[in-house]
From TrEMBL, chains A, B:
Keywords: Transferase
MF annotations from Gene Ontology: transferase activity
Ranges for domain GST C-terminal: 85-197
Domain spans labelled GST N-terminal: 1-80
Name the UniProt record assigns to this protein: Glutathione S-transferase
Pfam families tied to this protein: GST_C_2, GST_N
Domain of life: Bacteria
Organism from which the protein derives: Methylogaea oryzae
């Protein structure tokens, strides 16, 4: 299994983390985003969106972190990481949606503005990210994990950019439940970190 | 089944459309976003994110359009709308991800800036939206539907804000494959439209 990867990308890290938790061997192929390798003709053949991560599992190529998490969970992870029953599956999807919205366009974008000097409205991103953190905080006051009784890919999808939020100048002091959830994830057997965590 | 709904929201329309295609009865409960009803204490009990759509299916409450589509497909739609096999499911998820990113933060946001005078960088949203349209165009040059051989919830999730793109001053003239796909969706048995379509 090969992962087209970038070390500082939280979206790529989701896949590295999930592979580590599942005990899957995955070779990392570095893509230099600063040189624009993700927009090369060869890379666009793999992913027409020109983004990392991309997974190549013996010729089955899947792009997008959310789609890759679903693929790995379904193929290698089993029901506990991604349940098949309608309501339980919808609970996971709710938090995947949060990871693609408040977290990605709020917390992750605030981080790239601060860390990589990207253009964007920092205050607006921070505000959106905090709205997402407030939703997580209220959920985690009523359960240890986002969807169901144990960890699912919902937790894996939300975790990286939440834990990295301070790099976008969003402190986690006001979110004690979120900080405890971060600690629970970091205590999972097989856990690996990334720079900044 | 009850849908907390707003007529002009493309995200709400995804659910009305999918219910119509599945032949499901769904009562629409109007939420007045302009009056801020979605941020009331009662509504936040239903959805902590304070957004429509929210589905109440006999007491099972699901928020977020993507999660609701997955719920309805799994419970009432069957394998053709949302396959269970890992790779086929990942193909659907790839396009759900596009619907939450280039389409929602590009095309849909350009539309609310133009239509409802919301703040935001119109040119940047249009550019992101066009990047999404280009990806759709290349996919649809190689298949009639986004994921697999027939319509799935991937098509339902991407369709509304793509078809409404001209309301955000993004013309579809340069995307003939996308326009044919729009026509295919509009020809599905049970199809219903929304204002602007």
């Amino acid at each position: 299994m090969k992962l087209y990867d970038m070390e500082l990308s939280g979206n790529c890290y989701k896949i590295r983390l999930f592979c580590a938790l599942l005990g899957l061997d995955c070779e990392s192929v570095a893509v230099d985003l600063f040189k624009g390798e993700q927009k090369s003709a060869a890379f666009l053949q793999l992913n027409p969106r020109g983004q990392v991560p991309v997974l190549d599992d013996g010729g089955t190529v899947v792009w997008d972190s959310m789609a890759i998490l679903v693929y790995l969970a379904k193929k290698y992870g089993g029901e506990s990481w991604l349940p098949g029953e309608a309501e339980a599956l919808a609970r996971v999807m709710q938090w995947l949606a949060l990871s693609e919205n408040e977290i990605l366009y709020g917390l992750a974008r605030a981080r790239v503005i601060k860390l990589f000097n990207r253009p964007g409205d920092l205050a607006q991103c921070q505000q959106l990210g905090k709205a997402g953190l407030a939703v997580l905080e209220s959920r985690l006051a009523n359960g240890s994990w986002l969807a169901g009784d144990g960890p699912t890919i919902a937790d894996i999808a939300c975790y990286p950019y939440v834990a990295l939020a301070p790099e976008g100048d969003v402190a986690l002091d006001d979110y004690p439940q979120v900080r405890q959830w971060i600690a629970r994830i970091q205590a999972l057997p097989g856990y690996v970190g990334m720079p900044g965590l």
